[in-house]
User: What shape does this take?
Amino acid sequence: MSEEIGGRLDPTDWSRPVVGVLGGLGPAATSVFLDVLIRATAARSDQEHVDLLVSQHSTTPDRTAGILEPGAPDPGPVIVRDAVMLERAGVDLLVLPCNTAHHYARQVEAATTVPLLSIVETTARTAVESAAGAPIAVFATEGNIHAEVYQEAIAAQGGTSLVPDRALQDDINHLIYGQVKAGAPVDLDLFDSCIDRALEQGASTAVLGCTELSVVYDQHGYRGDARLVDSLTELARITVRQAGKELTELFR
Amino acid sequence: MSEEIGGRLDPTDWSRPVVGVLGGLGPAATSVFLDVLIRATAARSDQEHVDLLVSQHSTTPDRTAGILEPGAPDPGPVIVRDAVMLERAGVDLLVLPCNTAHHYARQVEAATTVPLLSIVETTARTAVESAAGAPIAVFATEGNIHAEVYQEAIAAQGGTSLVPDRALQDDINHLIYGQVKAGAPVDLDLFDSCIDRALEQGASTAVLGCTELSVVYDQHGYRGDARLVDSLTELARITVRQAGKELTELFR
Assistant: This one.
C-alpha cells in the first residue's frame, strides 16, 4: 500500500459529480459564483446542493498583466498546477469562474483528463442563439479583448462580435477596475450608457464577459434583461445541469 | 519516490498560511463567509487576499438531526474525513463556518494537527467582553442550544448565557428554517422583536450563533449594531488576523 501523501475526497462521503472550482481569479468572482450557483440550484435542503472543492487561490499572478505585459509573472503554470491538484483530489469536473483566465483553459485541458466546463463557450453559445445573427458586443477586460477570448468563441459558434471602441472600452475598464474591483459604488448610469452605446453601434446583445460586470448584473437588478448575456450566470447554469440538478425558475 | 495519489497544494505557488474551510454546512453559510472574509480583508488587489482551500461539502448529513434524532446519519465522521483531506492537501489552519457543526470540533481537533480557529470560542470571547457581566442571549438552532455549544463557551470565558424561552426560540427557528434557509423574504420586524424580547428578558447582548442569522445581520443593515455579536463576522475577523492580514475599517 502506498503512503497517502495528498488530500483526497473520500469517495464514500461525497456525492458525484464533485465539481472542482479553480477559484480566486479574483476571490470576489469565486464568492459570487458560489452564491449564484446556490441560487440557481433547485434544492429543498442543504443536501440537495452540488458538492464542490474550491481552490480560492487569491495570490495567483494577475491574468491581464500576464497577457499584456512582457516579463510579468505567468499565471498559466499556477492555474495548471491547481487543476492537477483538484483532479488528484478526486473532482469529476472543473470550472474556472473567470473569463480572462479562460485564456489558460487549453493549458488546463492539456494537463488534466477531467472535463473543464468553459464559461466562455457556454456564454458564447447562449449569446449567439440570443443574437439571431446580429453582432454581439463583448464587455470584458483589456486582456480578454486583446487575447480575443470571446471573439474566437463567438466566431466558433457562427456569430459576429462587436469590439467596443476606445471610449466605450475606457468606460468598461473604469466600471471593472475603478469601481467593482476597488469596492467603490457602481455608476449605474455609466453602465446603462455602455449598453446603449453598444446597441447604437449595431449590437443586439452584450456579453458580460467579466465577472466584475456579473456582480453589477446580479446585484443591481439586471437579471432577466434580454439585452444582456451574463457569463457567470451561464457558467452556473451549465454547472447545475452537468451536476444533474434542476435549475430554479429564475435561472431557467 | 512515493507515488502521489492525492491532491496537494503546490507549496511554491500558495501564500502561507493557507486556510482550509470545512464548508457546505450549509452551502450558503460558506458562500457568505467567503464574501464577508473578502470584505473584512484590507487589500488593494486580488493578490493581497487570503489563500483558501474550501471543501463545499453540501451533502454532509444534517447537523441538527445528527444531534437531536437518534439513528439519524452522523455528520461527525464525514467532517473529520474532510478535515484530514484538507490537512493532507497542505492547509495550515482550519475554519468551520457553522455554529451547530462546532459540536464536532473536538473530533476534528483529535484527528488533525492543524489548528482549528473556533467560530464559537472567538464569538463567545467577544460577547463576554461586550456584555461586561450582563447575560448574553444565544440565538441559535435547536441542535446548537440542545448541545449547549454556546452556553459552555460563554461559561468558559466567565460569562452568563440566557437561553431563549419557548416562544422566542420558535420565532428564531422560523427565521432560520422558514425564511433564510427557505429563501423566503426575511421578516425584519420579527427579528427586531426577537432582539427586543431577549433584552427585556435581561440580556445586554445577543450572540448570532447561527450563520443564517449572520445573513440577516449582513444583508439587512445590522452591521455595527452594538446589541449584537455576529458569529460569522467574528470568524472572519480572527481568520484575517491569523492569516497575517489587516482588517478593513468596517470590521475592526
